[in-house]
Amino acid sequence: MLATFLIGLREGLEAALVVGILVAYLRRLGRQDALPKMWAGVGLAIALALGIGAVLTFGAYELTFQAQELIGGGLSLLAVAMVTWMIFWMQRAGRSMKATLEGGIDRALTAGGLWALIAIGFVSVAREGIETTLLLWSMVQSFGDAPSALLGALLGLVAAVIIGWLIARGALRLDLRRFFAWTGGFLVIVAAGVLAYALMDLQEAGALPGPFTALAPIDAVTGGVAVGWAAFPFGWAFDVSATIAPGGPLASILQATVGFMPAMTWLQVIGWGLYISIVGWLYIRGLRSRRPSKPHGSPEPSSESPSLSQQGAA
């Protein structure tokens, strides 16, 4: 619940700030008449995200186990790719987001077309909506506890809408740059866990070699799949299920925070480690390269958030 709450909060706040920039700009231009068209695009984007979630949830019931695992693993890999791209896109394009959005509004108003304004609202929210849907769906599948995971996501989205509204009204100041930096790091860890779960799905479906295929190394003593170094590379890296019960509170916390599962294959461990090492290093390097240099003797920067007109720099 905590993990999905944070995901819903971050992704929802990102979408809320984008919509806030669009609304503020239209009002500044005195074009309140265009707001219903923009909101129609936002509504279509939300409907698309909900529709994708419904299809993934209810459509899987008609599939065989192998097909479910293949689709689940493939969509989880897609979610990891989208989250990774979004993390670095925000680092690179966050400073120019406000100008880009306002430029799109200017072009739509100049063209005077109904669909142009609807498209602005749709595209601005659809990306975050689809990404959030795929990521939350993958996490719900991995946790196996849909009610609490979905409740956490819903609470996060509601909190994001409230915070975004308070920021737009000037009633709340938040260091958005620091917020997105920390939650971006959290998403790197979450994406690594989703990647590990995707690899498990594909191994269970037989698409990748692992403990469920003929390539699994067998323990000569127990007759089961080997565990530890003797099982490298297609067996179990470790199995501590006897100590940490799968589905228990500790296992759920570890899986939600660092992607740990009581039993993991070598392919999962390797994939998790490579993702954290490579993407984590690139993310930290990006943060350091964008840290503003401070002249000697200058005062410390304020921790307050920028105004709505400056939110694109977050």
Structure report:
With 314 residues, the protein is mostly helical. Helix 1 crosses helix 4 (97-111), helix 1 (2-28) packs antiparallel against helix 5 (114-143) and helix 7 (176-204) packs antiparallel against helix 9. It has 9 helices and 2 strands. The longest helix is centred in the middle third of the chain and has 30 residues, at 114-143. It is 68% helix and 2% strand. A two-stranded antiparallel sheet has the order 1-2. Mean pLDDT is 80; it is low at 295-314. It has helices at 2-28, 35-59, 65-93, 97-111, 114-143, 146-168, 176-204, 249-258, 266-289, and strands at residues 236-239, 263-265.
Helices and strands: which structural class?
mainly alpha
- Mean pLDDT comes to 80
Helix/strand order, N-terminal first: HHHHHHHEHEH
SS strand fraction: under 5%
Instruction: For the largest sheet, list the strands in their spatial order.
Output: 1-2
Gross morphology: elongated
Largest sheet features: 2 strands, antiparallel
Helical residue percent band:
55-70%
Instruction: Give the count of helical stretches.
Output: 9
Please identify the oligomeric state.
Answer: single chain
Q: Stretches where pLDDT falls below 50 for ≥5 residues? A: 295-314
According to DSSP, the number of beta strands is 2
Radius of gyration from the CA trace? 22 Å
Distance between the termini: 26 Å
